[in-house]
Amino acid sequence: MKNIFLIGGILTIFFNSLTGIILTNYTSFNWIIANSKLTSIVLHPTNPNLWYLCGKNICFTKDNGKTFAYLKKNKKTENLFEAKRCDLAFDHALNGVLIAHQNRGNFRYEIKSNENIETETRINAAIDVHRTKIIFDSKRHRFLIGGIRLYSLINDQIQQLSYPNFPHNQFMHDDIRVITFDIQANILIGHDGGVSTSENGGAKWFNINGCGLNITEVYDFDFSEKTLFAGAQDLSSFQLNRKNNKWTHFSNLYSDGGSCILKNDTWYVMKSLQLVNTTNQGKNFNYPYVPVKTSRFNPELCLSDNTLFYAGKQLWKEQNGTWKNLSPMIESNYDVTGLIIQKNFMLLSKADPVWRSEDLKGKLFRSSNKGKTWQDITSNFKAYAYREISDLTSKTDLSHIYACIGSFDNPKGNKEKVYESKDSGNTWKNISYNLPNIPCTCITFIDKIGLLLGTDQGLFILKQNKWVKFRSELPEVPITKIRYKYGKLIVSTYGRGLWILK
């Protein structure tokens, strides 16, 4: 059996047999891979010596990788085929079909010979430079095209197989990364939310992330004594009824849910470039007016004294269905990355590091009067030079605050990960101690537990002057949010779902 792997820009071929393994490295592939942005390798169905390397171009070899050539656009020209992203599949008659995303749109091509591409046809399928995939469905004699959504292709007829079931579906997408079949020829698709399957050719889909396959990429969540409400990649927003531990997805596969807040019986979530809410547990959604539209991944929703705050390009406060700008003097070109709102005290950090260490301003602001006036205290936080605050938190004593940094450090420089201030941000102390050189994503101080830090490699807790891993059963994946209420600690991860500690 022959397996092909792409490792570090070098194509590696393992020949497995009963007698052992022979390893061959084709280092000459480095230039091909870099030039073609190689994303997939397709073997000819009947000729194991014929490979196609797909990406920006189509490169092929007829002699098991000894020599290579590029496919030409057609017989009449020497121009090579180029695209933003392309992929290739063969049908039962060994006809090759190529799909490609180009500046001019999405197209279908036929491969009439090993050297030439023919018959360009524009197709109405949502694929793009990041997600372009085609596979042949031998049971139904059709091609399946994946990317932003899933389509079937029979001759030149395109049929969409996955449909958003959420309003404004032009913004929804599946982010399909892989398409395959099980032994019964049911379709399986892998996407940012996990794995889904269809037993009837794509007419109805089921999410099969159960059995420990908790792949969900959660950006934020909030919970009450009865309900947990979360915003996640592709799976959109979902609810957990904590009486019977049953998950209910408001919209399966489609759209990305971001920051979440439960305010009494109204649930808010950032979704599809704007804020939405539901007052009936997800049966219907409303689109309340917000003064600015921004990415669902960046804004922060905050609830203080039962008042909703929205930190997008600036900080806004909800008042009887309208919004008041609490930070008109703060420039609005960058997104808010960290926010503390407690009583009269507010602390706000903005994205984009300062690239001149002698000119630290415009990125960290403090207010002691509920946002009536703001003080720029960026110069107090020297670590802002060439870095970015990713989150803020405070103790019950609001003068005692913490900030974490969301970037890698120069291996030869100082460790700049977590900072502590005991005077409301006037002076800061580096408490990074023994932390590894990884981005920090979120930070939370909990009276009964201590200072918790989310990183790209899991959750840490500060014990005296040492950071240690908190709960070894947690996966070493990016932690996106930490919340503690009702005697329960819940953390969300980017890729491994939600985890709860009672």
Search tags:
single chain, 502 residues, mainly beta, Methylamine Dehydrogenase, Chain H, four-stranded antiparallel β-sheet, 1 helix, 45 strands, disordered N terminus
CATH topology of the domain at 2-161: Methylamine Dehydrogenase, Chain H
CATH class of the domain at 2-161: Mainly Beta
Report the end-to-end length measured between terminal Cα atoms: 49 Å
What kind of oligomer do you see? single chain
Radius of gyration: 26 Å
Question: Would you write up a description of this structure?
Answer:
By secondary structure, the protein is an all-beta fold. It has a domain of 160 residues: Methylamine Dehydrogenase, Chain H (7 Propeller). It starts with a strand and ends with a strand. The N terminus is likely disordered.
Write the layout of secondary structure elements.
Blueprint: E1 2-7, E2 10-17, E3 20-26, H1 29-36, E4 40-43, E5 51-54, E6 58-61, E7 69-70, E8 85-90, E9 96-102, E10 105-111, E11 117-122, E12 133-137, E13 142-146, E14 151-154, E15 157-160, E16 178-181, E17 187-191, E18 194-198, E19 206-207, E20 218-223, E21 227-232, E22 236-241, E23 246-249, E24 257-263, E25 266-271, E26 274-278, E27 300-304, E28 307-311, E29 315-319, E30 322-325, E31 336-342, E32 345-350, E33 364-367, E34 375-376, E35 389-394, E36 401-405, E37 418-421, E38 429-430, E39 440-446, E40 450-455, E41 458-463, E42 466-469, E43 479-485, E44 488-493, E45 498-501
